[in-house]
Amino acid sequence: MSGKTLYDKLWDAHLVRQDEGGMALIYIDRHLIHEVTSPQAFEGLRLAGRKPWRTDSILAVPDHNVPTTDRSLGISDPVSRLQVETLDQNCAELGITEFLMNDPRQGIVHVIGPEQGATLPGMTVVCGDSHTSTHGAFGALAFGIGTSDVEHVLATQCLILKKSGNLEIRVDGQLAPGVSAKDVVLAIIGKIGTAGGTGFAIEFSGSTLRSLSMEGRMTVCNMAIEAGARSGMVAVDDTTINYLAGRPYAPKGELWDLAIKSWKALHSDPDASFDRSVSLDASTIPPQVTWGTSPEMVVSIDQVVPDPDNETDSVKREGMRKALAYMDLKPGTPITDIRPDHVFIGSCTNARIEDLRAAAAAIRGRKIARGIKQALVVPGSGLVKRQAEAEGLDKIFTDAGFEWREPGCSMCLAMNADRLAPGDRCASTSNRNFEGRQGQGGRTHLVSPAMAAAAAVTGHFTDTRREQA
Amino acid sequence: MIKIDKHHGIVMPLDRHNVDTDAIIPKQFLKSIKRSGFGHNLFDEWRYHDHGEPGMDPASRKKNPDFVLNQPRYEGASILLGRHNFGCGSSREHAVWALIDHGFRVVIAPSFADIFYNNARKNGLLCIVLDEDLVDLLFREVTQNPGYRILVDLPTQQIVLPNRHTIAFDIDPFHKECHIRGLDDIGLTLEHATEIRAFEEKRRQTAPWLFNN
Ligand code: SF4
Question: Which ipTM was obtained for this model?
């Protein structure tokens, strides 16, 4: 019999029961909650006269809808305020731990879970948010769910699931200086497409992944969903364990030792077989820039905007034309000629301390270019913000002309006041370049933090490999 | 959830790959704490020329006459015909609520994003996966024949075309039963509460650090 993949192991360890048709009940260890996808779930629970199964598995935080400017006066938009207050009320009523908006630990749900040690190896982690895949970086089975499933987990501590296939994405080799985890994952999506991982759980493996920090691994797993997979994961190693040691919610003392012993088995067996495998050579990956309105519409910094006429599939060709019209780009334009007028450094993909360091390094002592109307840095959490300030990064950003904001989702989805106006063009470290994602009519180019920062100071997309040299 | 077994309705084609949930219901409408009332803002940015905000009167909005949803021939459509990776992106269930609120009961596409598919099932919106060439055929038929209607027969897993031709489709037996009987997942799962408790107890023994706060 062949060995098990990491996903197989995580699945088996949480399997409560399975019926003949393959539908399984999977036990959930950690449930993260935010204000946008939970109100209807709590309401459903109340209407049915049900109580949460296990409140100590839940950690809640408002992030999507909170202002990133001065919060001392609360939220001015009454609709947003009601949503955040509803979360506060639900948590207070049911005894659920919540980091309130003005708590220094508040931040984007996918940043604070790991930061607090509330995400641990071997867990199942769910949240009413598709980027829950982020937590898979810890050797956890983590995926996004809709509101009905939020209610289902609240009521039963389980989910009804069917097992996914096993997809291995192996990345080996050394990244060029100036190339980061974000470029790796964009290159992966460029290769397999936004539906390439549909129906699969992805395990990211290979020497490149092993050499990435936890921040980098989180960036890669974060965008598993952009490759179509509900979950992405990386095996546990010393990097994982060292990151977690001493975090507030991580086990301590004897329990820590016990936990480590069990975590060390969280990797695919050498003889495990995958349903599909894809491999990439990291040393050949240049910095990536998206040109269209889907994350798979991505090219390297040294390439040009592609020509729909070269596409043979007619629906795809039409899609490319629509994307180019929306993005106001012409085929054949060198990527380095594209001039963003906004820069956004933030989101659950790239708002951790390492991301801010990389961006700061690219702008130190420089000023944002003349054509840049607004450049925002939105740290992923209050603690990331504090750390960055302790390192003097805020100063580097503000000296260059960036705005230094309070933590939250911000211009990643533009639910709060941070948004693009029609026609604005943004170099963004977030994860989705869909039409209107950052504001109606706004044009998004997804890039790494270093690439966004370099674009801010040069006024156009710039090869960060050269900047480094 | 809404029950569905046989459904006869007008088909509306949406000829794009990767229709994402941001396009189905833009974020400004996610501030609502209710499950209903999203229908007027379904495909808001494609459907209207002006910028939509919650609470606006739809009658006062500037409609985009080119968008399928505004074309008289598709008025009253309850079956949406889409392309690959339908419903990708954000996990927002509001996308499903908006489709249902507008009157859609069935979506047919060559592939769906996983979370969308699951959200749809939980609310009784039937998603049918068909081979690409069959989807192509339906696109051709629907664009050539105004008022094009089909019958979706879930119990026999068939789509019946106006010319009496039938197309068979696959669906997970559990999903099928949920749709036909309108089953509530939570109720079903709680029938296994004892098993869940036993599992939890075992887990508490083997991984005590997970029960530590
Ligand atoms: S930062 Fe963006 S992608 Fe991440 S949770 Fe917030 S809205 Fe979603």
Answer: 0.93
